Amino acid sequence: MNESITDVMNAEERLVFALRALFCRYGYRPYRMSKFEEYDLYAKNKDFLISEDVIVFTDKGGRLMALKPDVTLSIVNSVRVKKDAVERLCYNENVYRVPKGGVSFSEIMQTGLECIGDIDAYCVGEVLCLAAASLDLISHRFALDVSHIGLLSAAVASLSLPKDAARKVCGYVSAKNVHEIMSVCRENGVSEEKANALSELTSLYGTPSDVMPKVKRIAEVFSAEAEYGELSAALSVLETSPFRDRVRVDFSVVGDAGYYNGVVFKGFVDGVPEAVLSGGRYDGLLKKMKCEGGAAGFAVYLDTLAPIFRGNDTFSENGAGTVLLYDRDDDPAKVAEAVSKLASSGQSVEARRRGAESVIGKKVVELKGCDIYEV
């Protein structure tokens, strides 16, 4: 029998396997880490956590430890990159945190990659390309929405708004609420040119070839030419990608301004109502942890993909695809021989005694003497 290991994997396992193969082809090496970290790491870097809730315990040595709520923090804390070098790492790890909108802790599987060190425009573009390729492994019907948090921050800063008003404007940009953006700008005496430019930036959505000329003009209004250049350079790496037509520039993708400082992005697939992938450039975390260089990466949130995985497993929730029925007084050796024969033909098979329980939605065969008959 010619059976590969992927033949007995469920849909989630096959995706993880395919993602790791993809990342390794681009020079990312698998990285393994402990399930535990000293709690102090997370206590000092709560601004970089999705959720501040952490499961804490004391080990036998008296140290206060935590079940890992985040992968990126652990990697940056552990990896030391040589000067002028770039470290490419990928991972498949469980994290323990309260999901968005949840009330209790969950074990959440994440797979993703980090590019750390003396990164340049190509490195950021490569991360974008791999994010698009990762989404394509999940579903051919996907979109990767990209923006630049630095450009947006420069735009909002140039409005000279009070802190509370600036926070509201960022929220309105995320919601694409142009009406409220204009209202706040009018209330605070922002020039019509800048108010209109921010509203246009908020409304933009489309392929880089269609949208980036408009972004360039808007960036000049806010003296954000450098940030525009970073975004343009990263997107240029996608020009030869087979997925370039599914990349969209969308400044409602704001990310966390306290975490990200450059290109940010989110990935969506048909059939799932929320982002299944997110990432971006996060040099600030390295700076806070006294590491040189920059970093970019992303994570695929496997827990969001339940609607995709459901019904696509090699093995259903109720076990094997073929059921062999036998009687209590059948020769055990004959039952074993029949099971072996079915399995050697490539079928997943489960032997059940006749009448033990009903069989619904499966291929059913039965053993009569030495022969197998389909029911």
Describe this structure in words.
Among the domains are: 1-118 and 282-314, BirA Bifunctional Protein, domain 2; 322-374, no CATH class. The strands form three sheets. An eight-stranded mixed sheet has the order 1-5-6-11-10-9-7-8, with helices on both faces. Strands 13-12-14-15 form a four-stranded mixed sheet, covered by helices on one side. A three-stranded antiparallel sheet has the order 2-4-3. It has helices spanning 11-25, 39-43, 72-78, 121-138, 149-158, 163-174, 178-187, 192-203, 208-221, 225-236, 283-288, 306-309, 332-344; strands at residues 29-30, 36-38, 56-58, 64-67, 86-97, 106-117, 142-148, 247-249, 263-269, 277-281, 294-301, 322-326, 349-353, 363-368, 371-374. The chain has 13 helices and 15 strands. With 375 residues, it is an alpha/beta fold.
CATH class of the domain at 1-118 and 282-314: Alpha Beta
Question: In terms of per-residue confidence, which ranges show pLDDT below 50 for 5 or more consecutive residues?
Answer: 314-318
Helix/strand/pairing category: alpha/beta
Distance between the termini: 25 Å
Task: Identify the CATH homologous superfamily of the domain at 1-118 and 282-314.
Answer: Bira Bifunctional Protein, Domain 2
Number of helices: 13
- Count the E strands: 15
Radius of gyration: 26 Å
CATH topology of the domain at 1-118 and 282-314: BirA Bifunctional Protein, domain 2
Would you list the SSEs in sequence order as H and E?
Answer: HEEHEEHEEHEHHHHHHEEEHEHEHEEE
- Overall average residue pLDDT: 85
User: How does the overall form come out from the CA principal axes?
Assistant: elongated
Under the CATH scheme, which architecture of the domain at 1-118 and 282-314 would be assigned? 2-Layer Sandwich
Beta strand %: 15-25%
